[in-house]
Amino acid sequence: MIPFVSATIDTAALRQNLRVVRARAPGSRVMAVIKANAYGHGLVMVAQALNEADAFAVARVDEGLALRSAGITKPVVLLEGVFDGEQLALAAAHRFGFVVHIEEQVRLLEQAPAGAPFDVWLKLDTGMNRLGLTGAQFAAAHAALSLLPGVRQPVGLMSHLASADIREDPENMLQLQRFAQATRDLPGARSLANSAALLNFPAAQADWVRPGLLLYGVSPLAGTQGAEVGLEPVMTLHSRIIGLKDVARGERVGYGGVWTAERPTRLAIAAVGYGDGYPRNMPSGSPVLVNGASAAIAGKVSMDMIGIDVTELPQAAKLGDPVLLWGPGLPVERMAALAGTIPYELLCGISQRVAINSRKIPS
Ligand SMILES: *Cc1c(COP(=O)(O)O)cnc(C)c1O
Predict the structure, then answer these.
(1) What's the 58 CA to ligand 1 centre distance in angstroms?
(2) What integer is the mean pLDDT of 203-221?
(3) Which residue out of 20, 21, 29, 33 has the highest number of ligand 1 atoms within 8 Å of its CB and is therefore the one to mutate?
(4) How far is the CA of 124 from the centre of ligand 1 (A)?
(5) DSSP letter, residue 213
(6) Whole-angstrom Cα distance, residue 90 to residue 97?
(7) The ligand 1 atom nearest the CA atom of 220
(8) pLDDT tens column, 234-286
(9) Distance from the CA of 33 to the center of ligand 1, in angstroms?
(10) 214: pLDDT strictly greater than 70
(11) What is the reported pTM?
């Protein structure tokens, strides 16, 4: 049975994008960020495709466990760290590295039972004011971790930039300066760069880069697309036409009747909606590709369906025809902008009922 909605994952593109990242950051190792189900692309499939990454980063213990259950043996870093003895024991059993960003996590390590040392990244808050220790707390935490036999030495040093996608924001330089100053006399690997910092601030690439979005072929910089830096889109979201009808001039279409036919209109209904993660904010007039040709959404996005004006398509739309929502030819960056959001949210928002596969796109 052909699924109504599916996300096709181009694993060759994933691997190609990793090569692009390496070429951009030739002096750095790559911690491939595959949290949130690999940004909606499927955690295990992506991890298997990116077997040339140096390590994987996920947000939480459960995500690391899913990787280990699938037989992935590569280093895994938990970006939010561990919070109790149970999570610490899981980290020990599955050899997860993790971020330490708050004093309670230092205390947890001080009380840890003896065992193989943990790979720890100590996080400095350089101004984002999300996770990380500041000033004297950071120095004290570093001193404490340096004494622990249960922590591999030297401890890794990391931070995160709040506005790396805005190159001219002076906060970027301030954050990099604060990091350089607080870590000046410390040994250990350094990591600062997400995708945007990797592109905008080569000086922030350091020992380890932490790209997420770039690996999926998508640009984090507003108004640009991944293709401009040689990336290939990885996810194609597509659906099929499940209904067709002719509506007369003046007829309204969909919930609230917000779209009115201004001429006799051939309307196709495609089986995709906000229940699949296609954003409800996507306005009428936004493009989809029907049989590869551009057509416009007509009316509000429903939970399971969208209406499409196919009146002027060169090839008459038929039941079962493929409808591409984003992917090659329709960049997710552009669709996110139309929906008033960022590509991260569209990709991560793919819902459970969307079949994820690595097959070729139906045509
Ligand atoms: C999610 C995340 C990243 C990856 O961000 P992208 O913008 O997708 O490259 C890097 N570092 C940390 C700490 C993160 O939470």
Answers:
(1) 9
(2) 98
(3) 33
(4) 15
(5) G
(6) 11
(7) 7
(8) 999 999 999 999 999 999 999 999 999 999 999 999 999 999 999 999 999 99
(9) 6
(10) yes
(11) 0.96
Question: In sequence order, what are the residues at sequence separation of 6 or more whose Cβ sits closer than 8 angstroms to the Cβ of residue 310?
Answer: 244, 266, 267, 268, 290, 295, 316, 317
Instruction: Kindly tell me if the per-residue pLDDT of 108 is higher than 50.
Output: yes
Count of C-beta atoms within a 10 Å radius of residue 285: 11
- Decide if 35 is catalytic: yes
Calculate mean pLDDT across residues 297-313.
98
Query: What is the C-alpha separation between 22 and 38, in angstroms, rounded?
Result: 19
**CB within 6 Å of ligand 1 — which residues?**
33, 35, 79, 160, 194-196, 210-213, 220
Whether residue 191 contacts residue 158, with contact meaning beta carbons closer than 8 Å, is answered with yes
CA of 45 to the centre of ligand 1 (A): 19
- Read off the pLDDT band of 360 (50, 70, 90): very low
Q: Tell me, what's the pLDDT at 51? A: 97
Alpha-helical segments (H) within 184-239: 195-200
- Cβ neighbours of residue 173 closer than 8 Å, sequence gap 6 or more: none
User: What tens digit of pLDDT does each residue of 170-208 get?
Assistant: 999 999 999 999 999 999 999 999 999 999 999 999 999
CA 236 to chain centre: 14
Q: Which residue segments constitute the domains of the chain, with CATH numbers given?
A: 11-217 (3.20.20.10), 235-358 (2.40.37.10)
Burial class (CB in 10 A: 0-12, 13-18, 19+), 113: exposed
Query: What is the Cα–Cα distance from 216 to 196, expressed in whole angstroms?
Result: 13
Which residue type sits at 339? A
Structure confidence by residue, pLDDT tens digits, 335-357: 999 999 999 999 999 999 999 99
- Count CB atoms within 10 A of the CB of residue 147: 9
The two tokens of residue 1 are 């049975």
Shortest CA distance to 39 belongs to which of 282, 358, 343? Answer: 343
User: Cα–Cα distances in Å, from 326 out to 91, 329, 346?
Assistant: 37, 8, 10
DSSP class of residue 274 equals G
Tell me, yes or no, if 123 is annotated catalytic: no
Q: Which of 245, 255, 278, 360 is catalytic?
A: 255
